[in-house]
Amino acid sequence: MGIVVQKYGGSSVADAAGVKRVAQRIVNTRKQGHDVVVVVSAMGDTTDELIDLANEVTPLPPARELDMLLTAGERISMAVLAMAIQSLGHEARSFTGSQAGVITDAEHGKAKIIDVTPGRIEAAINEGAIAIVAGFQGVSQTTKDITTLGRGGSDTTAVALAVALKAEVCEIYSDVDGIFTADPRIEPRARKIPRISYEETLEMAAQGAKILHLRCVEYARRYDMPIHVRSSFSEKEGTWVVKAADVAADAHEGATMEAAIITGVAHDRSQAKITVVGVPDKPGEAAAIFRAVAEAQINIDMIVQNVSAAATGRTDISFTLPRGEGQTAMTALARLQDVVGYERLQYDDGVGKVSIVGAGMSSAPGISARFFEALSEAGVNIEMISTSEIRVSVVVAETQVQDAVNAAHAAFDLESDEIEAVVYGGTGR
Hints:
By secondary structure, this protein is α/β, with parallel strands linked by helices. The protein has a domain at 3-254: 3-Layer(aba) Sandwich (Carbamate kinase). Helix content is 34%, strand content 24%. The chain is built from 13 helices and 20 strands. It has an 8-stranded mixed β-sheet with strand order 3-6-2-1-9-11-12-10, sandwiched between helices. The two termini are 28 Å apart.
């Protein structure tokens, strides 16, 4: 049997009992004949607590030192997990991200993986040990400083290691039994998806579904690494994230949901909306606006430009962005007022995004109409719309996000006949 890479989230190792349970699961996998490499997140809310500590010390923690601080959480997890495994009679060795060969760029707080050179991990495996790797972290190729990969970085660490080690599968363990047709916290009749394509998972992740991190799925798709999303609190089969061709083959054999047009409903409550009011409708003005936002290192999601008013020759441009970057964007745009000549800025952080995702919609007419009718019947007002080949997204008031998710979920017959979704640890990670 080959190598299995397993990743455990913070809720799975939140306390000593959780660490022992995870250790037993790892040992059981080893007894089945697999070589096992484990990537582990910080215990429970440790990362948030460390961030709070840094902010109590200074309102602007230096990025380099903040990375050094935050990586302590995963180092604690990897060490205590290695101890728990050794108490069960199996050798385990813990490694930091840098010791595991995770090489990144120099961008503190959101570094990207450049390469993985897992020589020490391979040596540990060859000597019969279980390797425990601290997720979320690496070392800069240029500065040699410790870096962190940003939220969800442990998922990316796990997939990157699985690719480098030519593993059979990357198992992502959280506190839910897989990927569901909606977040079980707001849609209790959500149905578990047995198999889902990389493309659909990317759309779900990009639109707010938090079970897998976007970068991790992108990495897996690039190298065709199968991901098995499952719970560390049960023995149930989870959700397999694989090539679209494999999903289609299973659907043909009747192994998945019957000809599902829509795979799932995702939502995101972390959005904000900025409207630049009264922009002169002439070439170059929109470019100047979005160049300023890009130079502030802010990712934009939806963009809507109104029809120019004939009387004034001006238009309004609205776009959504992560709420945490809203004030940074407003500051960057304020500097442009004299240059662009717009009238004013409007900021709204009381919005959310709801999306339907499914490869089947590309060949099924009427999907948007059914979605919008369901929202209308639920009394949900649509503020913005965005589409792709396999996704339709709307921006609504944050207070209406749950109603929108429930309405869309029912409209596309995604409910399970029985309650399948159980959030064992309370976070879904």
